[in-house]
């Protein structure tokens, strides 16, 4: 190889041993793609040449899971991370694997189905901050707070694009290997920034990973997907990963998901339902007159701006996800949406005064079994009988009381009772308004 691996390893060893601040931890961004894999492998092999007694610096291998990553890639990455941690322990490399995930209220499905956020596009990429940048930023800042500073090791390369090369050059610290990062007291170290794409593949094909096995599966994934990888995202300058191999399967920022289509064409037919959902999300975003509300979430109405997805659209999207999940689970152990997400989606529907169709109704219709959305599920029939008995003179009040109880129970599950009174008052106001339209009078 024309690539001077010895030089790279020496640079890493020198930075590790003779850093002006030996206490600041290293945070290695790992996506499972070719660049981050080469980065981790070069760092690992360099540290194996250091006397064990000198390996005192904390090293974290951080992988971000948006919870809507391509399931085929998730399986591969999780298996790789397990091997990495086990091998690090066996070889006494001071390395800890960490995975970051978005907050529950920031997950893709909670925002899209729960609050009706339209699918992202190139102008409004609301997903990047919430799913990628924020989770990893929280981890980095946590380590900065603990140690004063931190060094982030990234597999970014100048050969990736002209813009990336300019950014690397612009942020370099003169006469040092590090460049400043937007985060306070954080620096970036990019050991392979001058490595070409050809050299990356040459290295991976010739040097086995120190955590065991080969790179055969990684190479196969790239070959089958027709695209590149999605790096760890820690700022908003990173382009969309929709065209890449290691990205989100729901990505609607690009017009066509070539990587998922490539995988399907190369034997991953079980992913076809995912492709259909992704295409429907694009359609729902591009046809607002059919799928979205005129009234925005702040209550305003504009002729040229649309509001969130309609209740019917949210119901349809959730049904499509659950139907796809059920179909895929016949052969693959994959979960597309979590129980916790569905609980929060239901809570947001209640807050929007959407009570007609519940999340559990949709789930039960698809899976033909009852979804327990509440700790108080066993008391439901007893409560219902008691309510009908108590509301003999006003049976229409039963549905109102059930909705109010559902609000309270959902708040309890969320361990978040703030705003409960306002939600209850809003539901009562809606109930009064509906019945006044029928000629009923309420004080």
UniProtKB/TrEMBL annotation:
Residues 28-208 form the Phosphoadenosine phosphosulphate reductase domain. It comes from Mucilaginibacter straminoryzae. The gene is dndC. NCBIfam families: DNA_S_dndC. It holds the Pfam family PAPS_reduct. GO terms for molecular function: catalytic activity. This is DNA phosphorothioation system sulfurtransferase DndC. InterPro entries: PAPS_reduct_dom, Rossmann-like_a/b/a_fold, Sulfate_adenylyltrnsfr_sub2, SulphurTrfase_DndC. It comes from the Bacteria.
């Amino acid at each position: 190889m024309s690539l001077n691996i010895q030089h790279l390893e020496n640079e890493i060893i020198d930075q590790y041993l003779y850093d002006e601040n030996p206490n600041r931890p290293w945070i290695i961004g790992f996506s499972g793609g070719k660049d981050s894999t080469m980065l981790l492998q070069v760092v690992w092999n360099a540290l194996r040449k250091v006397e064990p007694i000198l390996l005192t610096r904390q090293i974290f291998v951080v992988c971000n899971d948006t919870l809507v990553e391509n399931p085929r890639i998730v399986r591969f990455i999780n298996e790789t991370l397990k091997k990495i941690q086990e091998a690090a322990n066996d070889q006494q490399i001071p390395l800890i694997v960490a995975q970051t995930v978005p907050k529950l209220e920031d997950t893709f499905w909670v925002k899209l189905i729960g609050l009706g956020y339209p699918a992202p596009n190139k102008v409004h990429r609301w997903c990047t901050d919430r799913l990628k940048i924020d989770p990893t930023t929280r981890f980095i800042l946590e380590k900065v707070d603990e140690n004063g500073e931190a060094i982030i090791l990234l597999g970014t390369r100048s050969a990736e694009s002209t813009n990336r090369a300019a950014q690397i050059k612009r942020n370099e610290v003169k006469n040092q290997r590090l460049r400043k990062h937007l985060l306070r007291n954080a620096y970036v170290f990019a050991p392979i920034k001058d490595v070409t794409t050809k050299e990356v593949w040459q290295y991976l094909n010739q040097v086995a990973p120190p955590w065991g096995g080969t790179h055969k599966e990684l190479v196969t994934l790239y070959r089958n997907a027709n695209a590149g990888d999605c790096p760890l995202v820690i700022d908003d300058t990173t382009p969309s990963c929709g065209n890449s191999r290691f990205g989100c399967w729901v990505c609607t920022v690009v017009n066509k998901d070539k990587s998922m289509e490539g995988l399907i064409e190369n034997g991953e037919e079980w992913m076809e339902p995912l492709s259909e959902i992704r295409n429907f999300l694009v359609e729902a975003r591009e046809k607002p007159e059919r799928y979205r509300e005129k009234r925005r979430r702040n209550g305003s109405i504009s002729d040229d701006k649309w509001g969130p997805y309609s209740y019917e659209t949210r119901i349809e999207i959730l049904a499509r996800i659950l139907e796809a999940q059920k179909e895929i689970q016949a052969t693959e152990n994959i979960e597309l949406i979590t129980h916790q997400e569905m609980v929060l989606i239901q809570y947001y529907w209640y807050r929007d005064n959407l009570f007609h169709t519940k999340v559990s109704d949709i789930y039960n219709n698809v899976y033909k079994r009852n979804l327990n959305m509440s700790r108080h599920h066993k008391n439901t029939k007893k409560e219902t009988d008691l309510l009908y008995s108590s509301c003999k003179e006003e049976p229409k009040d039963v549905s109102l009381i059930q909705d109010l109880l559902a609000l309270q129970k959902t708040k309890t599950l969320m361990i978040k009772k703030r705003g409960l009174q306002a939600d209850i008052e809003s539901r009562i106001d809606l109930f009064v308004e509906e019945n006044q339209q029928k000629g009923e009078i309420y004080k």
